[in-house]
Design brief:
The complex is a heterodimer of chains A (about 425) and B (about 300).
Chain A lengths: L10 E13 L2 H9 L11 E13 L3 E6 L5 H8 L7 E6 L2 E2 L5 H10 L1 E4 L11 H5 L1 H6 L3 H14 L15 H14 L4 E5 L7 H18 L2 E6 L2 H7 L2 E6 L2 E6 L1 H6 L4 H7 L10 H4 L6 E3 L4 H11 L3 E5 L5 E6 H10 L14 E2 L9 H6 L4 E4 L5 E5 L1 H8 L20 H8 L10
Parallel strand pairs in A: 3-8, 3-9, 6-7, 7-8, 11-12, 14-15
Antiparallel strand pairs in A: 1-2, 1-4, 4-5, 9-10, 12-13, 15-16
Helix pairs in contact in A: 6-7, 13-14, 13-17
Chain B lengths: L7 H15 L1 H23 L3 H15 L2 H16 L3 H31 L1 H16 L6 H8 L3 H25 L3 H9 L4 H34 L7 H12 L2 H27 L3 H20 L12
Helix pairs in contact in B: 2-5, 2-8, 3-4, 4-12, 5-6, 5-8, 5-10, 5-11, 5-12, 6-8, 7-8, 8-10, 9-10, 10-12, 11-12
The chains are: A alpha/beta (about 425), B mainly alpha (about 300).
The structure holds adenosine-5'-triphosphate and magnesium ion.
Adenosine-5'-triphosphate (ATP) binds next to strand 2 and helix 2 of chain A.
Main location (chain B): membrane
Subcellular location (chain B): Cell membrane; Membrane
InterPro entries (chain B): MetI-like (IPR000515), MetI-like_sf (IPR035906)
Chain lengths: ~425, ~300
């Protein structure tokens, strides 16, 4: 959301202050809403299904609209391809304002730019799978042999090879929705609208379809606007998510932004039982590294750092600030006692290092195997932060946000302060190396 | 007390006089066209020997329902011949065919109109209610006035009487099509005409066929009543038997009507379901070639997605 304003051609769909009201005088209702009345106040006149919705969907993005039943998702998506008129506001698809065109031009936009996958599949029951998949092409006016050939490649693509000549009623739900998806893909429009496309499928098939959708999106680069009332689905699929409540969009953001920084209590409550471990990334929960020294600082500095922070481990960086490993207090102690000064001999590499975009679920195993905090490094191996086990648990369990520091973040000291002080022979030393 | 009277009847009469006077060319045209149609169909049914017609009916019976129905049809039609009502029955059948074809040709477009437009529906519905509750005999009066005695007023009265279920069930069928499927048509950019042809009509077909079946059955019952205005055929026989209290003639003519009714009902009902022996046969021949190919893939396994 903090990115610079995108160029015009990179925006696939743009909704600008959309309103949709049902009732005898929808325009009156919208006028009242614009004058500041609430949805409840106009309820005697009718239903305000969508109130002041604005957003831009970038090319190649999966934009998810999420909200409870009745929040206006279906109404919103039906305005995006002009199936329903807007009461107020404009929609543009690929630069064409579809709220201001003739019926014929609108049909043209639908043929060329925007297609749809339906919740209950909406296949033509009297046509075979291949004729269903070829339906959009048929409307576009493509000849029979050409469109059947193209439909066949799409049928293979969505994994229905061998079913081309069956009727939809002979297929399972998951397969029927593949036909629905195939029909939309065959039309070869830039934008796909999907209204609760996977909601009618059972959970296993659903997950599979979600994964396949992401693969297809990556392969074909389609812009997808996906409606769902399932938060986990939204978090899994969405590059960005718009959360709707009572007709309004209350927040638009990446899955992480929505989880870690909910715009209001409603969103916070909504997201509280999401599978956080699969959404949150290392970057969003990591803590600043405090116990850290450079390799050249020497064992005494390391010992002092550990004493001050009451830990038994400190992270070590190379001169170019890249992550070198860790040292433990016992090893450092021995080094000091022997009078040696080179830390390199005792640096261990048993701390796990991960990239910032790793999801938390992948951190659980390393965290179980070692009491050491997990190091988060960028692709140049620079240490960005650490994730102690406690932090990981707190983030997954949503115990506290990643603001205030947690009481214990590092393995506690195994050597007493007085012992270290005695060895260093200088308790008043300040200015610990960072 | 008996001074007060609203002369609705006289008003209607004035209206009728006006219409007959100024639109006589129209009624003449209709009379010629309907009479011509009836005579042609009647000629086709009556001039061949009865066994040719029974043979054709038998073919239709076996195509629509199978061997048992074929046997029933042949026995029934032979009974009509045996009762010496064959020619009358064929006249009646010709009346029914002409009247119901015209009624269907008018009612389906009206039903489509009613399904597509709320305004049209709100006009058409009360008219249909009116037509359906009005006693059947009443239709004969204007028909007589406009078209004089003969087959034509019978056909016209029959068309008007029988149209209603055709309109209603067409509207019902089209409105009953899953709105999401219709939406799918528009979402892919299909024009309204294309949606009607490719989605609404095919999916409404079973309901529309039920309407057609009812139109035909109502036509048959009205054609008999039309015997009163000189439409002849089995209706005339029944009217004669009624005036003479002739139980022999009455029961034979009545039985002939019943046999025709059963035949027409069963054939059209079977066509409505779309599961006729003939369509199964065609489907079988069509699927011969790809049938062998789909055997291996027929296992209900969710296939894996092929990566690009
Ligand atoms: N044709 C209509 N006439 C009147 N009100 C309508 C109509 N369609 C939708 N609504 C109302 O608009 C509101 C939003 O409905 P919509 O179908 O967009 O919600 P949704 O988020 O898609 O819900 P669901 O998850 O149940 O599909 C609801 O209160 C609904 O009752
Ligand atoms: Mg919905």
């Amino acid at each position: 959301m903090t990115e610079s304003i995108p160029l015009q051609e990179t925006i696939a769909v743009k909704a600008d202050h959309l309103y949709k009201a049902f009732g005898r005088r929808p325009h009156e209702i919208v006028k009242k809403l614009k004058a500041g009345k609430s949805r409840a106040e106009i309820s005697s006149h009718g239903v305000a299904a969508v109130i002041d919705a604005s957003f831009e969907v970038k090319k190649g993005e999966i934009f998810v609209v999420m909200g409870l039943s009745g929040s206006g998702k279906s109404t919103l998506i039906r305005m995006l391809n002009g199936l329903w008129d807007t009461t107020s506001g404009t929609v543009s698809v690929g630069g064409t304002d579809i709220t201001d065109v003739s019926a014929k031009e609108l049909r043209d936009v639908r043929r060329k730019s925007i297609s749809m996958v339906f919740q209950h599949f909406a296949l033509l029951p009297h046509r075979t799978v291949i004729d269903n998949v070829a339906y959009g092409l048929e409307i576009q006016g493509m000849g029979r042999t050409e469109r059947l050939a193209k439909a066949r490649t799409i049928i293979d693509l969505v994994g229905l090879a061998g079913w081309a000549d069956n009727l939809p009623s002979e297929l399972s739900g998951g397969m029927q929705q593949r036909v629905g998806l195939g029909r939309a893909l065959a039309a070869d429009t830039d934008v796909l609208l999907m209204d609760e496309a996977f909601s009618a499928l059972d959970p296993l098939i659903r997950r599979e379809m979600q994964e396949q959708l992401i693969e297809l999106q990556a392969a074909l680069g389609k812009t997808i606007i996906f409606i769902t009332h399932d938060l986990n689905e939204a978090m899994f699929l969405g590059d960005r998510i718009a959360v709707m409540r009572d007709g309004r969009i209350v927040q638009i953001g990446t899955p992480e932004e929505i989880l870690t920084d909910p715009a209001n209590d409603y969103v916070a409550q909504f997201v509280q039982d999401v599978d956080r471990a699969r959404v949150l990334t290392a970057a969003s929960v990591m803590e600043p590294v405090r116990a850290v020294i450079t390799k050249t600082a020497g064992p005494r500095a390391a010992l002092r750092t550990m004493r001050d922070l009451q830990t038994s481990v400190t992270f070590v960086l190379n001169r170019d600030r890249s992550f070198a490993g860790i040292v433990r207090d016992r090893d450092v102690l021995k080094l000091v006692k022997r009078g040696e000064t080179d830390l390199r001999a005792i640096i261990r590499d048993d701390a796990t290092a991960v990239l910032p975009e790793t999801v938390l679920v992948d951190l659980v195993e390393p965290s179980v195997e070692s009491e050491l905090p997990i190091a988060v490094v960028d692709e140049k191996n620079r240490l960005l932060g650490v994730i102690p086990r406690v932090t990981l648990l707190a983030a997954i369990g949503n115990v506290t946000t990643n603001t205030g520091p947690l009481p214990v973040v590092m393995p506690p000291a195994t050597i007493s302060v007085s012992q270290i002080a005695e060895i260093l022979g200088d308790t008043a030393l300040e200015g610990v190396e960072a | 007390m008996n001074e007060f009277r609203i002369p609705v009847g006289s008003w209607v009469e004035v209206l009728f006089d006006f219409v007959t006077e100024h639109f006589s060319f129209f009624f003449d045209f209709v009379r010629l066209a309907f009479a011509g149609a009836f005579e042609t169909v009647d000629y086709l049914l009556v001039s061949p020997p009865f066994y040719v017609i029974i043979g054709l009916a038998g073919l239709l019976a076996v195509a629509a329902r199978g061997w048992k129905f074929l046997a029933g049809t042949v026995v029934g039609l032979l009974l009509i011949v045996g009762m010496n009502q064959w020619e009358n029955a064929m006249d009646t059948l010709a009346l029914v065919l002409v009247a119901s074809v015209i009624a269907i040709a008018m009612s389906i477009p009206l039903g489509i109109l009613a399904a597509k437009s709320k305004a049209a529906s709100s006009v058409i519905r009360p008219v249909l209610d009116f037509l359906q509750t009005m006693p059947a005999f009443v239709f004969l009066i204007p028909a007589l006035l406009f078209f004089r005695v003969g087959e034509v007023p019978g056909i016209v009265a029959t068309i008007i009487f029988a149209m209603a279920p055709g309109v209603r069930l067409t509207e019902l069928g089209i409105r009953g099509v899953d709105p999401e499927i219709v939406e799918a048509g528009s979402a892919f950019g299909a024009s309204p005409g294309r949606i009607l042809r490719q989605i609404q009509l095919p999916l409404a077909l079973p309901t529309i066929m039920a309407g057609i079946n009812q139109v035909i059955m109502l036509s048959l019952s009205m054609v008999v009543i039309a015997g009163m205005v000189g439409a002849g055929a089995l209706g005339a026989e029944i009217m004669t038997s009624l005036s003479r209290i002739d139980i022999v003639l009455g029961s034979e003519a009545g039985l002939a009507v019943v046999i025709l009714a059963i035949f027409l009902d069963r054939v059209t009902a079977a066509l409505g379901t779309g599961k006729t022996p003939i369509s199964r046969f065609i489907a079988l021949r069509k699927s011969r070639a790809p049938a062998s190919a789909s055997v291996e893939t027929a296992a209900p396994v969710e296939p894996e997605l092929v990566r690009l």
